[in-house]
Amino acid sequence: MKIALLSMAMIGSQLVTPVSDRVPQLNVEATCKATVATDKAMGLDLAQSFDDCMRDENAAQQQLTTVWLANSTELRNRCEGEATAGGNDSYVDLLICMQMADWVKSPSSGPRLKGASKNRNN
Question: What parts of the chain have a pLDDT lower than 50?
Answer without folding.
Answer: 4-17
